[in-house]
Amino acid sequence: MRDVTEIAEGSTRPTTAGVLRLDQITKVFGSLVANDRVSLEIRPGEIHCLLGENGAGKSTLMNQLYGLLQPDGGHILVDEVPQRFGNPRQAIDAGIGMVHQHFMLVDVFTVAENIVLGREPGSAGVLSMRQARQRVRELSARYRLDVEPDARVEDLPIGVQQRVEILKALSNDARYLIFDEPTAVLTPQETDELIEVMRSLRDEGRAIVFITHKLREVRAIADRITVIRRGAVVGEAAPSATESELAEMMVGRAVSLTVAKEPPSPRDVRLSVQHLTVTSPDGLVVVDDVSFDVRGGEIFCVAGVQGNGQSELAEALLGVTAANAGRVELDGVDLSRRPPRDRLSAGLGFVPEDRKHDGFVGSFSVAENMVLNHVDQFASRGLLDLGRIRGHATGLTDEFDVRTQSIDTPVGSLSGGNQQKVVLARELSRPLSLLIASQPTRGVDVGAIEFLHQRIVAERDKGTAVLIVSTELDEVAALADRIAVMYRGRVVGVVGPETSREVLGLMMAGVPHEEALAAASVTTAEEEDARLEAEVEQHRGALQHDEPGPPVRAAHRDDEEKHV
């Protein structure tokens, strides 16, 4: 007879996870097949990574497992017992927990209130906050996820909010934990902490599903990797697979993961931002006294965890968000009080972070979208020159490799990568002084990323000032000639592209550059000491067994003798 444990409603379930199996799961939205007969096994004591491009169907698949969506075909089986989850409560009762990419927390509630929400402890209908706080402290201690029970969620840093999400899932005794793109809003240090948490949960015997499109993270944590492309499983890969091999499985062809670019040749300052301040509609300062310059012929990247003012900065430079104070100059001309149309006419190109809402009109054709913000250049005496518009679109479609059946195809029907190519092609089709690209490769497949990066570098080499806003550190490292790190609306520091991920991560958490550099140097020294200790121990062990040990390098001889 299997060992069981009671849960809140009085039902029972095994204390240890059995195999959870998805068999031929199919989900269709209209003409779109989001999941096409997907089968996979989720096993206890294992971190199973679902790797695929944005839009590949990973989250849709897990939303069905969590009861947010219902399959149109196939079966979910727990310990070979068929299950059908009509809502998340039924999935939770079966031992499934999900840590969502966009946190499912009530901002005005405390940590304790969020964690017990729906399973409030107490009697006679009276909530016992003492029991709720004690539950949070027990879980925090057990999983080394330090959070204050009485802290209000809206006052917590993003990384701590994610701890609350994890504790909420664990408070329901989840045996199967789904992490949906959990590192999207974390610093590198917070990502490392999360990986350690997932490993400890795996070692307890829980089954972990880790959804991501980031190759570096997959190789760091996966016990097993399933690759999904266009809604279907295209194969499994070993954790030892290279990033290039994984990328090829994701895209279906070989791609280059590095950006080929020559050292920059900076010219005169083209964009000058001086003491720019922006407040939100509710009076919160979101861009706080920001100043920087961008020269022609360089790529200036603004890095930081999402939500630290980067989006508002980009919108203020375009003029769609009004600045409360400060000055914006382009080629020496003050644009601070000018509307977006004047700034575009002055040579500013803009690729918005949300292309579907701000970058194109989905029902308009490829040709129409390619002239949206300079349509007057294709008009004469109040009439559009349709022939010129079509010729313009045909040339850009070829030049930017836009995969479309026709220039008359609605842009909304194209893939994310081709939609982004349309937006970038439009912006680069006229002479620019400044190109601003906010999250330029978000939701874009690896192959399209390669092309988009090449075009951005080519624009830099023409002498254009390029400003990139990105939360992807790999992208920042690949493109940047200089990096400004933002935290809570302020620029913490401006550094070179050689800056380590550790230093950038500390700066993204608000640590000033010099302090971050010193902290990272201490960490590096400690890591080097640990490495030397391990090397000497291995060497000493080999000598005790009369086996040849690893070569001892003369440069470290003093350190090694000290450790011995």
From TrEMBL:
Gene Ontology terms for molecular function: ATP binding; ATP hydrolysis activity
CDD domains noted in UniProt: ABC_Carb_Monos_I, ABC_Carb_Monos_II
The UniProt record lists the keyword Glycoprotein: no
GO cellular component: plasma membrane
Chain ranges of the ABC transporter domain: 20-255, 271-513
Membrane topology annotation: Peripheral membrane protein
Record's keyword annotation contains Nucleotide-binding: yes
Start-end of Basic and acidic residues biased regions: 531-548, 555-564
UniProt protein name: Nucleoside ABC transporter ATP-binding protein
Originating organism: Auraticoccus monumenti
